[in-house]
Design a protein that fits this description.
six-stranded mixed β-sheet; 46% helix; elongated; 13 helices; 434 Repressor (Amino-terminal Domain); Rossmann fold; six-stranded parallel β-sheet; DNA-binding; alpha/beta; 329 residues; 3 domains; 12 strands; homodimer
Chain lengths: 329, 329
DNA sequence: CTGAAAGCGCTTACAG
DNA sequence: CTGAAAGCGCTTACAG
């Protein structure tokens, strides 16, 4: 592996000059530049980015942390994130933490040891406490979930409106006893969607019953128990809204194998709009989130912050449009 | 951000000593070590890895290149890869190339500019030519697909045996007119699986008809056209083996909406064993590949190669066990 | 327009 | 057991 020194010697110039042509400094004389360029090509020289990074105190790298990768929901966000990093000539390290704090810590350490310049947390992959600790020192963007009191930019959809639309769609079809399966924890999106749900019920004059709301993880067993739990409480339900396509697919599976005690003719609307909602039988009516764009925009904004090194922590929600897509359920 | 110099001054030792403590050099006197450790803690010092990397000429980083991320097949491999990197204290950059050569090139450049030490190519994410070019200079591991004549280690399953078992399962159930939907290109796994398919047919005395074999991309339209194409050739089929769960899910979708002209009672066996095969209706009989382990093992072997800097290019196939799981199709 | 030199923050062979 | 010093491969302010 040849170094800048060898290129300089071969071209008969100083390393400073080689460095200047490498960085397209317009000050170098065209003839010199061409000579250097030719030698670089001949020697097949590639600059050592380890040295450049140290010198410039910048790694041109960001990290995106995801809760998991088994849900296509996250894959799509990651895909958009990669594209944005690529478009801005940044490297991106995508990490899935699988609910393990020590894995999260290795990614945080990338920031602390100068290997990464900024981070985007997808979904609720970081606790409020962690965000508070980090937000003074590092550039952070949140993707899909935010926390009240944390002034990092968050890229998400209008969850309240989406919750309203999902509920309204079921009401429009004549469903009145609508259960709501939320995500595992009470995140900002859960709260907002429930608000929309309540608003739609109220508007239709349907009484709100808190027993119809329950949270479930993205596993078949959890979803099954949760839905059956609602039914067991004496709640006779004729519609379900889920927090994710994955949950909806599990419900369909449970209905089919009769381990979930609801009718096949139940109304079902999910959130996300991954391809999962299209390969189930029946296909699922869903709130399509602009997942690729959520990932893309999060990274784009993070890099913008990095490049304009103003410390202005513009709090801010960036709202991307969603869409209700009606399918068979 | 405090540097090693400040720690040294504060602790009343040289930077050399601080460095030794940082690297657990047993030579430093316990008293000195404790003093330094205490100062490090007080100052909340974190070493600058950019400097360490340059000094040691090592980034402790590898890259894994995947064709895409929209198939859970790849997500699972990526998950295993991340775990292996974590367990060996390496960083891993996972990149999806989406069939775009220029994206691939950015990941290759990570190697060439010293930002990454090695690479694992998943599926056929690199051409044979590229592998030939890179294999002299860099440490490479292939995951799931290999090329004859390329002496990089490949971690995969026994595709011939798996193809045999898939075919045999359908024959056992009385199917004799079995179509084979392969992957898009003629990769090593495709070739091997077809060998197994032929072997099973031969053993059962069923004539082999090449018109029953055709390739398809992982998209609904492609799969639909491919299956219909086989039928249009006058091939009356009563069984299908697919290259992926995703293809199988598309076939079920097509059968249901009657855009694919085969009977609902067709025998269907897929490859992969992702959760997709469980959320379709009916659920799909599948060859379960140890995806997490494929990813994990590929990375583990790459790091081993990196650490034992022998140039011995041990060609070699590492075969992991698969399993036929019988479900509803 | 170009070069000599300092320096980014570490590690390590060498001397003591 | 510890420190002074060289050096990893770049960039850039400064001088000319």
């Amino acid at each position: 592996m040849s170094s800048i020194k060898e290129v300089a010697k071969q071209a008969g110039v100083s390393v400073a000059t080689v460095s200047r042509v490498l960085n397209n400094d317009p000050v170098v004389k065209p003839a010199t530049k061409n000579k250097v360029l030719q030698v670089i090509k001949e020697m097949n020289y590639k600059p050592n980015m380890l040295a450049k990074n140290l010198r410039k105190q910048a790694s041109q790298t960001i990290v995106m942390v995801l809760p998991s990768m088994s849900n296509p929901y996250f894959s799509e966000i990651a895909r958009g994130a990669q594209a944005a990093a690529y478009d801005n000539a940044y490297h991106i390290i995508i990490g899935t933490i699988e609910s393990k704090r020590w894995i999260l810590d290795t990614y945080i350490n990338l920031l602390k040891t100068n290997l990464a310049e900024g981070i985007v947390f997808v979904s609720s992959s970081a606790s409020k406490e962690l965000l508070e600790e980090l937000s003074d020192e590092y550039k952070i963007v949140l993707c899909t979930e935010h926390y009240p009191g944390i002034d990092s930019t968050c890229v998400t959809i209008d969850n309240k409106k989406a919750g309203y639309e999902a509920t309204n769609e079921l009401i429009r079809r004549g469903h009145t006893r609508i259960a709501y399966i939320t995500g595992n924890r009470e995140t900002s999106s859960v709260t907002a969607r429930i608000e929309g749900y309540k608003a739609a019920l109220k508007e239709a004059g349907i009484p709100f019953r808190p027993e119809r709301i329950a949270g479930a993880k993205n596993s078949f067993e959890h979803v099954k128990e949760t839905v059956n739990g609602i039914v067991d409480k004496g709640m006779n339900i004729d519609g379900i809204i889920t927090h994710s396509d994955l949950q909806a697919s599990f419900i369909l599976k449970g209905i089919k194998e009769k381990s979930i005690a609801v009718s096949e003719r139940i109304g079902l609307v999910s959130f996300d709009g991954t391809f999962l909602a299209e390969i189930t039988n029946p296909t699922v009516t869903t709130i399509v989130q602009p997942l690729y764009e959520l990932g893309y925009t999060s990274v784009r904004i993070l890099i913008q912050k990095l490049q304009s090194d103003t410390d202005a922590k513009e709090e801010g929600l960036v709202i991307l449009p969603h869409q209700l897509v009606i399918r068979e359920t």
